[in-house]
Amino acid sequence: MSSTKATSNFRRHLQRKHPEVLKEPEATIMPIQSDQTTVDSFMPDPQLKKWKATNSRQVKLTDSIVSFIANDLLPLSIADSTDFRIFF
């Protein structure tokens, strides 16, 4: 029977067997690259934007995209895909 506390078990495993991985969490964060795709680049014309960033519908859509990528453990580069841009 497997444990339902997978994250805790994984963290404990890292602490015991691979402590160097958890030494400096900031060191593992990748710096922002100047050529990184921005959300605004998905819109071909700034006048076509329908919602402000604070609009509840926009917030829900953004949260849905983040959940889609994070929950399915997809690479962030999926947002660079032409098909992804067409879908959203």
From TrEMBL:
Residues 1-23 are annotated as: Disordered. This is Zinc finger BED domain-containing protein 4. It comes from Acipenser ruthenus (Sterlet sturgeon).
